[in-house]
Automatic annotation (TrEMBL):
Top-level division of the source organism's lineage: Bacteria
Molecular function terms from GO: metal ion binding; phosphoglycolate phosphatase activity
Species this protein is from: Pseudoduganella guangdongensis
Protein name as it appears in the record: Phosphoglycolate phosphatase
Family designation: Belongs to the HAD-like hydrolase superfamily. CbbY/CbbZ/Gph/YieH family.
Keywords per UniProt: Calvin cycle, Carbohydrate metabolism, Hydrolase, Magnesium, Metal-binding
Subunit annotation: Homotrimer.
Cofactor(s) listed: Mg(2+)
GO cellular component assignments: cytosol
Single biological process term from Gene Ontology: reductive pentose-phosphate cycle
Positions of the catalytic residues: D14
The protein's annotated pathway: Organic acid metabolism; glycolate biosynthesis; glycolate from 2-phosphoglycolate: step 1/1
Amino acid sequence: MTAVLRGIRAAIIDLDGTMLDTMGDFVVALTAMRAELGLGPVSAAQVEPMVGKGSENLVRRVLALDYDAAGVERLFAQAMDSYQRHYIAINGQHSEIYDEVEAGLQAMRAAGLRLACVTNKPLAFAQPLLALKGLAGYFEVLYGGDSFEKKKPHPMPLLKACEFFGLAPAQVVAIGDSSNDAEAARAAGCPVLTVPYGYNHGVGIHETDSDGIVDTLLFAAELIAQAN
Ligand SMILES: O=C(O)COP(=O)(O)O
Ligand SMILES: [Mg+2]
């Protein structure tokens, strides 16, 4: 695992399911949206496999619990507006930092790594959330799911982060909780580590092709430091 981590100068870190357990925020905002449409609540178990491919996909999949494809499209704009309104109102209030995230980020910075956060969450949600949780200061750059034309699993946001750093993809490790992160990293040519505790579309993280599974961001920092 450590061979690909040799020469790493920067890390691109995912947000939902990697640094923050945001499932509570998703459930509260989606349930409020559904109430406006006269629909019943959703549970974390229902929402978890739907998270990871951005807000539009999430809202469509939650509508699809009750509507066929035509119904989903008919209600989409109204539902999206409602979801965004409710999400921004409660953003971070039902979310927790995972264990050893801050220690991991501190250790990475202490080892001289430059840090980017690349999430599929819209930038308008991600920015205040990182600030609220005291994590914003660790990152030189933050890209959201709407920062570019393409979001993960497309490699574009990761390649943009490498470009921002002026580093080759092989010098930048991606760390995330889902196959989205791993596929984006592989396509970009970045080494990739995955965490086992987040949201991986209802599939075990062992099913996902990565350069290693790390229990926490602190363990990831230690591996990177050892390899360099
Ligand atoms: O909001 C999402 O769809 C997932 O966001 P992530 O890329 O930070 O996991
Ligand atoms: Mg994630």
